[in-house]
Amino acid sequence: MVLSLLSQRQEKLFFMENILLFMEIEIDTPDKFHFKIPSLDLEYVFSIQVLEKYLLEKSPVLNVDVSTYNWECPNLIDYNVQITSINQALHSIFKSITNGHNNPGVNALKVLFYFLSGIISSTNVKLNPLCIYVETDLEMGAGTGSSASFCVALVATIIQYLKLRSVDLNNVSRNGFKFFSWTKQEIQHKKTFSQRQLENISNWAYSGEKTFHGMPSGLDNTICTYGNIVKFRKNEKPTVLKLSNTLFDVLLINTRVSRETSKLVAHVANRREIFPALVNHILEAMEDLTNRAADTITKIDNCSSANRLNYFHDLETLVQMNHGLLCALGVSHQKLEEVVMVLEKHGIKGKLTGAGGGGFAIALLPAGYDAGEVIQKLKELDFGVICTRLGGDGVKVE
């Protein structure tokens, strides 16, 4: 799960949340490919022959000659044309399927087809009957990174399947495609992802995210892949900051208020157009605040226990200041302010997270803090509450 600790429009710090999305693969189910997501009430069953006919026997639609492509090159696929081809395949297989952009079940199926056609179809590996089962703690469509988590877990599952089926092949690629083989390290460590594989997972997940969001930032797929903390600035490569000694206990509070990110972004843009100097100063303050927070988190992770409390208080202050700056941009909501006030009465600092305008708030818990009373109060006010930790692992095989 993806959460912004210090969310703003220019530079951001993001944590990996230990709320999980699990994907299981069962190989050798009888002559069928099963795809199940119970949280979406979704279950599709295809014959392997149908998948081969409409997907796997065709080369992905490329911007380059096929000889320069192997499964590690999702950036060489003509995304729009490939998705059009996948839509046609879906309609051929399921005559009644709808093509709505906001239908999460259909989008999940499109991403599955996109990954299978882009990865498996370029290799010498034949798809065996199998079942992919998705289970998640995440609330879908609530701004918590569920689509990125899904894309990362799904493509990691397919890549792991590919590796297990092809470690003995000198050239994994089909005839005519660019050569590919696994390294000795990747062959020896079949249940771990190498740095190269993690890069591939993140890149493919970014492509899959386009199906859900049109033009994703590249942040959510990065943190779901690598975990820990990601420092992100638009148009720059995200930086992963690994925590070695610290996981942050937090409350994640669901206001149950839906929000539209595009409208909130437009609202800030309008405010900036009317008050350019003021809004620019707010954004500059957020950038300074974010850099200070990154330094403070690093100090908390590396310092002695005697100094940790002082640095944690600094981080609490930065969280409080960030929420105030976001309020000045007009992206808070009455319910978010109610949450922050309840937290304050219990000695906890909190802020909105994500796009704002509803959605979720996040609260940092001091070490050893008993959150039972504040959780009970928030639930009495009909807020959803999850107690979890930030700074966890990214994608992995278990």
From TrEMBL:
It is found in: Cytoplasm. Pathway: Isoprenoid biosynthesis; isopentenyl diphosphate biosynthesis via mevalonate pathway; isopentenyl diphosphate from (R)-mevalonate: step 1/3. One of its GO terms (biological process) is isopentenyl diphosphate biosynthetic process, mevalonate pathway. One of its GO terms (molecular function) is ATP binding. Residues 128-164 form the GHMP kinase N-terminal domain. It catalyses: (R)-mevalonate + ATP = (R)-5-phosphomevalonate + ADP + H(+). NCBIfam families: mevalon_kin (TIGR00549). Belongs to the GHMP kinase family. Mevalonate kinase subfamily. This is Mevalonate kinase.
